[in-house]
Amino acid sequence: MKRRLIFLIPILLVVVSCKYDFILPVPEAPVTAGVSFATKVVPIFTTGNKCTSCHKAGGQSPDYTAEKAYSSIVPNLVNTSSPNQSLIYTLAGPSTSTHNWKKLSASEAAIILQWITEGSKNN
Ligand code: HEC
């Protein structure tokens, strides 16, 4: 019996030492990340003060500054069941604007629409 155990020790050692010696799976191509509110949507409003020249604290509501943008937009200005009906998208949209001030460019509007379609998350 003891002898058998002694035989088992090197086998166990091999098994244990091989345990972590597996080949890691090659990671798949990253899934296209969703549109981040903080890094993609907010800069549309704030870069060059495009919207925040007026839409800021003490100015015209809604306040689109980085600190307030999310609570200004969600839920009031988004329509999650029909994202393309969302006021944040249509009111200053490139073709749908009824707003006499600055408009969104087509690519900015597309980013906002995608963000709403993805659930208008505070991400
Ligand atoms: C020069 C000032 C000015 C700038 C710049 C401006 N806005 Fe406005 N915005 C207003 C005013 C004034 C109103 C309220 C009257 C109206 O609805 O037209 C308004 C209203 C809005 C509303 C409607 C809010 C509501 O609760 O009904 C939205 C949405 C909006 N703006 C989006 C934008 C976006 C997006 C930008 C940047 C692309 C922008 N605005 C830039 C002046 C501005």
List keywords for this structure.
elongated; mainly alpha; single chain; 123 residues; binds heme C
Q: Would you spell out the secondary-structure blueprint of this structure?
A:
Blueprint (H helix, E strand, L loop, with lengths): L1 H17 L18 H10 L22 H5 L13 H4 L15 H12 L6
Helix pairs in contact: 2-5
The protein binds heme C.
Strand content: under 5%
| Largest pleated sheet | none
Task: Please provide the ordered H/E string of secondary-structure elements.
Answer: HHHHH
DSSP helical segment count: 5
Distance between the termini: 63 Å
Low-confidence stretches: none
Percent in helix? 25-40%
Gyration radius over CA: 27 Å
Mean pLDDT over the full residue set: 86
- Unique bound compounds: heme C
DSSP, total strands: 0
Helix/strand-derived class?
mainly alpha
Q: What general outline do the C-alpha atoms trace?
A: elongated
Describe what you observe in this structure.
- The protein is an all-alpha fold and 123 residues long.
- The chain has a domain at 37-117.
- Helices cover 39% and strands 0% of the residues.
- It is built from five helices and no strands.
- The chain has helices at residues 2-18, 37-46, 69-73, 87-90, 106-117.
- Helix 2 (37-46) packs antiparallel against helix 5.
- The longest helix is centred in the first third of the chain and has 17 residues, at 2-18.
- The termini are far apart.
- Heme C binds next to helix 4.
